[in-house]
Each structure stands twice: as structure tokens, then as C-alpha cells.
Amino acid sequence: MPKFTLADIEKALGKVTIVEKGQQNFSDVTTDTRKITPGALFVALKGERFNGENFIEDAVKQGANGVLVSNEYQPSGAEIGGTVIQAEFDTQTALQKLAHFWRMRFELPMIVITGSNGKTTTKDLTASVLSAKFPVLKTQGNFNNEIGLPLTLLNMNETHRAAVVEIGMRGLGQIAALAPIAAPTIGIVTNVGETHMELLGSMENIAKAKAELVEVIPAGGTVILNNDNEFTAAMKDKAKAGVKVITFGIDNEADVKAFAVEGSTTETTFKCRLGKDGEVAEFTLPMVGRHNVSNALAAITAGYVLGLSQTEIQSGLTALQMSAMRFETKRLGEYNIINDAYNASPMSMEAAIKTLADITKGRRIAVLGDMLELGDVSVSAHQKVGQQVAQSNATALIVYGPMGKEIAAGAKNAGMSAVYHVNTHAEAADKLKEILQPEDTVLFKGSRGMAMEKIIELL
User: Fold this and answer.
1) Is position 194 within any domain?
2) Which residues are CB-contacts of 1 (< 8 A; sequence separation ≥ 6)?
3) Which one, of 290, 288, 292, lies nearest residue 360 by Cα?
4) Consecutive 10-residue runs of the chain (459 residues): their mean pLDDT?
5) Are residues 274 and 234 located together in one domain of the fold?
6) Which of 74, 318, 361, 395 has the CA that lies 20 to 30 A from 407?
7) Left if phi > 0, otherwise alpha if psi is -120 to 50, otherwise beta: which for 179?
8) Buried/exposed code over 125-140 (b: 16+ C-beta within 10 A; e: otherwise)
């Protein structure tokens, strides 16, 4: 747990106002009154529907030694009973500054990952690979935003020898603002796709936003780029002088290149050349899909950069523990279920549909929901997904959501007849029960807002 003195907090935040003075040592930092431990500092975050400053008295009563409030805080006149520290800005910024101050106490490789698709999978893979050699801090779940990133960094302790964190992006400037908090020494960009097209308007703007990570890596650091994606490959020129750029790929020539990729329903094997003149290793990945080989290559490259042996890298891949709902395969009664429901974009939809076709020999059914935040390309992108399902020779397609009708239209126009549009999760489950046969394989995928996993629960 992070430990701060009052002097540390003043140094991290700059000038502060001590509204009420009490304890000067804090044994943890939390933003949740339900998670307060004795001696903690409670950071009173504010949002559109909540204000942590309404709970500072509760925090002290529950054992917090002090509370951190914003520049808008108005003292009531009554004593809180603990140290009340007022920042000169909002508490979200204060939390980020505290996290950066804490992170800078540790000299260790800090790997920051971003990209349109595969961030969390690549994070899990990279952390697993590195964990074969030393203790690693990693982002839990998808704690990759303005609050999640600093909370992750505050979990760093003296046992860690490396850290792997991911950063999401909703607009230009966000990665440029967040990445320096982590002070990355290695940056990985997985790819650039149409995710967030509604917000950024063009692939060029999405690439520009993702490239912000490359631009903040300092001299002496390393940038790892996907050479199979034209937009990430072009980011080589964004690296600062003194930054080493290493590429990975399957289709295109790269510093770390995979070939002879072969898959089954449970794993994928491939050969990999480590360095353009390096030796060839053979790896087994406990995941399916060519897109996951690409994600694994990013992790392998990180291990290669940090000096791990082939044996250590394979050990890390074998020990992989994935975040939920990311091409998660399981048996449900007589059926094979693929839960890839965490999120969806045109790029990840195409990969999932192709992988479904590659790994199954029998009947396969796709249950797909809307892809959100695609803006002007939404209709054409959804129709293309339907076309891809039809071309994959899937047995049936069930679509859910307003744009699901466009997926259905694309599939029908491509000659597929067993296409069904439903209006609720329950209707989708009922339709599945009607058409399922023993040993069918069913893929569930859609944007997070579509909650496609609920259909599995209804089965």
C-alpha cells in the first residue's frame, strides 16, 4: 500500500492549504469510503452524479487519517476530526499527481500499452510473459482511464520489478495527458482501427491520438509497433531521438516475426524469429485466432527487449490468465460457447468471425450486437460484418440492436438465409434454443453497451 507523509503530499501537489491539521502520516490512498483502511488518505473525487466531499466525515469515522479535497471545497466550520488537505485544483488531478509521485519512487521498466483493439489482451499477455522472470504490477480489468490508471500505479510496491499498464483513449490529447503519469520506459501500440470513429472522425485522427504514446517515450526507452498495421507502422517517425523502435508482425517483415501459424479449438502454435538476424523459437499460445498471435507478438517482443529467454517467454504464455469475455471458450451443455462479448469494433469483429471459421469444423452460429461510436461509417461497417459472416459460411446469424438490422442486411445481400433480428436478450436466447443442435459452436460479440453475455446467462 502507498505510504505518504503530509510533506510528501505537499511536494507531490505543490502548494496546498491545510484546512484542518491532524495526523501527518497516511498508510494508504483510496477514493472509496467502503475500502478505507486505518490510517488511509481519502481522496474525495467529484463526478456528474457524485461528490466525495459529502463523505469526508464518514471517511474519518471509518479510520482515515485525512482527506484530500478540491479547490472548490467550502469548510462548514465544524471540525472533521482528521487532516483536511485542500489542493489548488480538482481532486482527479490531485490523485494523478500523487500516483505519479509514488511511481517515481521505483526504478523499473514501465510498459504502457494502447491501441484500437487488443489492449487488455496484450496487457494480460505481456504481464504473464514478464511474470515468468519477476513480480509484475498490471492494470486490473480495464482500469485504463483518468482514475483507473493512477489507482493502478498506487498499487506499486517494492516487490515489483516491472509494471504493465494500459491506457484507453476517447479523444486527441488524452494519451498525451495520461501517459506521463506512468512515466513509461516502453510503449506498445497494438493497432489502429475504426474504434471511436464517431469521436475522432477519421482513421488519421485515431492514429494521431494513439501516436501520442510514441511521442512521450523518452530517450533511452523503447517503442514496440505492429508492422502489419499501416497506421502503427508509420509511427516509427514519431519516436524521439534516442528511442529504440522494434516492430512485430505476421504478414509483413518485422524485427520480431511470426510464421507457420497453426491453430486448434484451444491453442495456437507458431514459429517466431526474435530479431531480424536472430534465432527462431516455437511458441504455443493458449488462445485461438490470428489476431491473438499478433497480441502475443507484442508481449514476446517486450520479453525479448527485457532479456527473457525463450523458455521464460513460453512459461509466461502458458501461465496466461485472461481478463473475462475476451474470446473465452467454454462448454455449455452440449454446445461450445465463445464469449467475446467484452467489446467490438470492425477490426475485432472481422477477426472473431474469421477465427470462428478457422477453428470449427461443424455448425457455427454468430450472435452479434451493435458496434458503437462508429459515426458516419456505422451503416457500412455493420453491413460489412454481415457480409463477412455470410462469406464465412456460418450456419446462422442472430443480430441484436438497432444496427443489427444492418448486419442482417449485409448477410442477406451476400446470400445468407438463416438470419434473425431480435429486439431483446431474451428473444436471442429463445431463438438460439430453437435452432441449436448438439456440438454447435456459438460466438457472442458486441460492444460493451450491448451486454451480449446476458444472452449466455439466459441459456
Assistant:
1) yes
2) 27, 28, 37, 157
3) 288
4) 95 94 95 95 93 94 96 88 95 98 98 95 97 95 90 96 94 96 98 88 95 98 98 97 98 97 92 91 95 97 96 96 86 94 95 94 96 94 98 98 98 98 98 97 97 96
5) yes
6) 361
7) alpha
8) bbbbbbbbbeebbbbe
The answer as to whether 100 is a domain residue is no
The answer to whether the Cα torsion of 380, 443, 352, 452 is positive or negative is: positive
Any idea what the Cα angle at residue 164 is, between residues 205 and 310, rounded to 5°? Answer: 110
Cross-strand bridge partners of residue 228: none
- Residues ≥6 apart with Cβ < 8 Å to 272: 256, 257, 258, 259, 280, 281, 282, 283, 297, 300
Is beta strand 268-274 parallel, antiparallel or unpaired with respect to 256-263? antiparallel
Distance, CA of 346 to CA of 450 (rounded, Å): 15
Q: Which secondary-structure segment (H or E) carries 410?
A: helix 404-413
For 107-131, the pLDDT digits (tens) are 999 999 999 999 999 999 999 999 9
Q: Minimal CA–CA distance to 331: which of 186, 248, 438, 239?
A: 438
Co-location of 310 and 345 in the same domain: no
Q: Kindly report the CATH number assigned to the domain that includes residue 278.
A: 3.40.1190.10
Look up cell 506521463; give the residue: 180
Give residue-wise pLDDT tens across range 308-356: 999 999 999 999 988 888 888 899 999 999 999 999 999 999 999 999 9
For 390, the domain range is 328-458
Statement to judge: residues 61 and 156 lie in one domain: no
The residues, ordered by sequence, that sit 6+ positions from 261 with a Cβ below 8 Å of its Cβ are 250, 268, 269, 270, 290, 293
Cα–Cα distance for residue pair 91/297, rounded to 1 Å = 38
Neighbours of 445 (CB within 10 A): 27
User: Is residue 323 assigned to a domain?
Assistant: no
Q: Give one DSSP letter per residue of 178-229, joined into a string.
A: HHHHH--SEEEE----STTHHHH-SHHHHHHHHHHHHHHPPTT-EEEEETTS
Overall number of domains in the chain: 3
Cell readout for 174 is: 488524452
For residues 299 and 355, state if they share a domain.
no
Determine, yes or no, domain membership for 27. yes
Phi, psi of 130 (to 5 degrees): -70, -30
